[in-house]
Structures are given as C-alpha cells and as structure tokens.
Write a structure and sequence with these properties.
By secondary structure, this protein is mainly α. The longest helix has 26 residues, at about 135-160. It has helices at about 1-20, 35-40, 70-75, 80-100, 105-125, 135-160, 175-200.
Length: about 200
C-alpha cells in the first residue's frame, strides 16, 4: 500500500512538471529579513586611518632604545647580542651629550656626561677585549669619541683653574674661550658621526 502511495505521489509530481504547471499559492513576505541589505551603504569606511598615507613627511615615533623589551624582542639583531644592547645604552648617553652641546650646557653637566661615556667605553673595551667585536668600526669609534670627551672635559676643568693666572698669550691661549669652543665644535662633528655609525650597527 505504501509503495502504491509513493508511486502515485511521484506520478502526480511528474505530471505537474511536464505540464508546465508550478506552485500555485502565496509566497511568504521575506522583505523584513533583508531590510539590512538595502540600508547598508555601498561604500564602506576604511578600517584604518589612511590620512597620512600620501603625506610626504610622515612623523614616525622615535625608537625606544631605553626599553630593553624593544631591543630584545623587536630588533632581534644578531640576534639580540649583548654587544647590540651595550651599543644602545651608549647611544642614549651620546645623544645626551649632543643635546648638552646644542643647548650650551654647563661645564659640570658636560663633564658628567663625558664621564659616563668614558665609563661605558672602558667597560666595553674590557668586556670585548678578547672577542671579535673589538674589530668593529662601531667599537673603534666609541673608543675614539671617549678619548676626545676625556680630553675636552680635562681642558675645560683646567681652564676654570688656570685662566685666572694665565693670559691668552702663550700657554694660556689653549684655555681661551675661542680655543675651547673650536675644540667643542670638532668634538660635536665626531660625536654626530659616531652616533650615526652606532645606530647603523644596531
């Protein structure tokens, strides 16, 4: 009986298809379900702010060299060697000296920063004395700039003592303000070069 009913249904369905007749009745209203499609704008807003994409002079954040996590995780230089970390520490001090000179900092401030540069250079000279890093240009430039910092710091200290007793003639000429300013200007040029070299190495 079941087979007969099934065959009858299939027969009727086949007749409907062959005769071209389709479903006759009312379809459900589905407009409400697709309302959001009509109300969604065709042009969507960008997820990211692209206002600075075509900016010829974009402003980039300064590298946070004082953050050890940035050095250890982000830079991953060779790959995060102790030498790179030591260079980054020195770069911060050299940049302080750069700012001190640019702002005409006091002799005391200059000498304090110079002392810090010398200490770091001596530390690295001892640490890498038997390692390949001692042959790097960055290592050599750091030692050179530390020696210059020591020389100028000594000169400025001596000038404060001896200038009272010496004239600007003969031996006293080296302690004159113009002479010291020339030495500082030469030091500034070498300081800028050293900072660039050290940054290129990190």
């Amino acid at each position: 009986m079941k087979k007969f009913i099934s065959k009858s249904i299939l027969f009727l369905f086949g007749v409907l298809i062959c005769s071209g007749s389709g479903y006759k009745g009312s379809l459900p209203d589905i407009n409400g379900q697709f309302e959001y499609v009509r109300n969604t704008p065709q042009k969507t807003k960008p997820v990211f702010n692209t206002s600075g994409v075509n900016n010829p002079n974009p402003r980039y954040k300064k590298i946070p060299r004082e953050n050890p996590q940035y050095i250890d995780i982000i830079l991953k230089k060779d790959k995060t060697s102790p030498y790179i970390n030591d260079l980054n520490d020195v770069i911060l001090i050299l940049e302080k000296m750069q700012k001190c000179i640019d702002t005409n900092g006091s002799v005391q401030k200059f000498n304090a920063i110079a002392s810090s540069i010398i200490d770091h250079a001596d530390f690295m000279a001892e640490k890498y004395a038997q390692r390949p890093e001692r042959y790097y240009i960055s290592f050599s430039k750091l030692q050179d700039i530390a020696a210059q910092a020591r020389s100028i710091a000594t000169l400025r200290c001596e000038s404060q003592v001896y200038i009272k007793y010496l004239t600007y003639q003969g031996e006293g000429q080296v302690y004159s303000k113009d002479s010291i300013n020339r030495q500082i200007e030469l030091f500034r040029e070498q300081l800028n070069i050293t900072i660039r070299i050290l940054k290129d190495s990190t």
